[in-house]
Amino acid sequence: MLHRGNLRRLTGATVVVLLLAALIAFYAADRAGAGPTRCQQHRIDSRERADSVTGEGQRVLVIGDSWSVGLGQDDLADSWPSRLPGEVHVAGFSGSGFSVHASSCGPVSFHDRAPTALSVRPALVVVEGGLNDYDQPSAAIETGFRDLMADLAGQEVVVVGPADAPSRSRAVPRVDALLTRLAREYGVPYVRTSDLDLPYLDDRLHLTTAGHRELGDVVADRVAALTPARPAVPTR
User: pTM for the complete prediction?
Assistant: First the structure.
């Protein structure tokens, strides 16, 4: 049986231990919260890139992944869509793709984000991606593509396929062939980029600044060759 004095000392020690544990937990949480998580950073970058509208003229919407966002660039606004003609709006999210589970950051697939992105009322929608679908089943990619086309019904659409990024090179032919077939089925122009020899960052997945310029210029030329001239329409 504990003596009253011992009980007080034990209670006091317990309080000290609990306070120390709380302080340690608070410190650890504070350290962990020193910077955003990967998904939080992707959301921050996505909003920043969406706010960076480039060019003038016909309104163009690019729905894409980290390449459209400009991940790895000092200025996200320098990502490849800035090379496209027109007033270019970018709805990108790093890690996203056609399939639902290409990203682990929640509902951020192209289909998930398209309805909101269309609020800019574009004259042309350019969908760029496929590299993040590299490990996804073909059935999942196809489902995502079909859902996206339903979202974009009535829009003029161009699909830009994956380039041959070294870190995912083995998966590109399968995804490229699947997107080619689906685009043909829907009568949507398909811009193949897997033939390009682009410069990459050290991660062998994301483009250098020069790579963004080269890709943007090539895509702009190929889109122009695949799509008819569009009459001017009001942008407001």
Answer: 0.82
